[in-house]
Amino acid sequence: MSRHLINLKDLERGAIQELLHLTDRFVEVGQRSIPKVPALRGKTIAMLFFEDSTRTRLSFDLAAKRLSADVLEFPTRSSSLSKGESIRDTVETIQAMGVDGLVIRHSSSGLPREIADRVNDSVAVINAGDGLNAHPTQGLLDAYTLCQHFHTVAGPQASLEGIHVGIIGDVKHSRVARSDVHAYTSLGATVTLVAPKSLQPPNVQDWPVQISEDLDSVLPTFDVVGLLRIQKERMEEGLIQSVDDYVDRYGITEARAAKLRNEVVITHPGPVNRGIELAEAVLEHRDNVLINRQVTNGVPVRMAVLFRLLGSGVEID
Ligand code: CP
Q1: Is residue 128 included in any domain, yes or no?
Q2: Which end of the chain is more exposed for a tag (fewer CB within 10 A), N or C?
Q3: Are 109 and 196 in the same domain?
Q4: How many domains are contained in the chain?
């Protein structure tokens, strides 16, 4: 595995399985009375979130602290970016302070890769979501959550063979969908994307997936209903007719949820637009909505990534 984690497409199935296996060990650490290990003592990790985040930011922060690393928070809104300092100079400045890892979220696709190409050999860059491009730790935590649910995590042979995942919504603008598709298909799942033509990516025929515009015809075949956040600005861009029309065609309403087999699980990376991609009553009352489990798993998955890239690779305790 490379020194950086920029895109899951850089990882073969075996490397993904190794990270999921390592995650199991950090799940166990999280269950201890003191859920903290000294594995990254003496390491410093800077959190560079140029775009807003709740889950990813806080779980990277918690993961680093549970590994005993020092965490350097970068306050984007009160930094010298407001005086016109470039991101390149900002990163060089932070690097000059002697950090070991940079966790980067930015609205520009490709920025973490550009930074990874520039940093010193001793610095690891981890992509926490870049534009439409990739969200690798979300892909890992979603895959881990499904493997955990379907009891296929134990040991180094995590697998989603035989599982049919539907990914529903704004695939075109979703870095989560891109990373999930790679993670799920690498582990053997079948994936069907469900979206109107206007929200399908331009080169979707090259993706290793099936495609449908008609949710109701494919929904009964899914083991996993993977929802994506509908971004309201897409309506202003004319990519969806109206919220009501979207809910009617693609929302998991109470009526659609009632037709799902009991064992079908629902995932969503968050934040959820309640009442749009997922009905409030389904979110609150249906068993097998795994959204909180996804958030919980974000911490050990990110511990595994930080440990793998910054740790000795041997000792956790
Ligand atoms: N899933 C996800 O990336 O959420 P945040 O934007 O809150 O980090």
Answers
A1: yes
A2: C
A3: no
A4: 2
301 and 263 within one domain: no
Mutate to test the pocket of ligand 1, among 48, 53, 272, 291 (most ligand atoms within 8 A of CB): 53
Q: Write out pLDDT tens, residues 12-71.
A: 999 999 999 999 999 999 999 999 999 999 999 999 999 999 999 999 999 999 999 999
CA distance 140 to 316: 20
Q: What is the CATH number of the domain that holds 39?
A: 3.40.50.1370
User: Is 166 a domain residue?
Assistant: yes
Please check whether residues 142 and 278 belong to one and the same domain. Answer: yes
Q: Which domain holds residue 249?
A: 138-291
Q: Which of 225, 194, 221, 198 is nearest to 291 (CA)?
A: 225
Q: Which residues pair with 194 in a beta bridge?
A: 168, 212
CA distances in angstroms from 214 to 33, 230, 275, listed in the order given? 48, 17, 20
Q: Is the pTM value of this prediction over 0.90?
A: yes
Q: How far is the CA of 128 from the centre of ligand 1 (A)?
A: 9
Q: Which ligand 1 atom lies nearest to the CA of residue 56? A: 8
Q: Count CB-CB contacts under 10 A for residue 25.
A: 16
> In degrees rounded to 5, what are phi and psi of residue 61?
-60, -50
Same domain, 41 and 91: yes
What is the Å distance from ligand 1's center to 209 Cα? 24
Q: Is 90 in the pocket of ligand 1 (CB under 6 A)?
A: no
- Average pLDDT score over the chain: 95
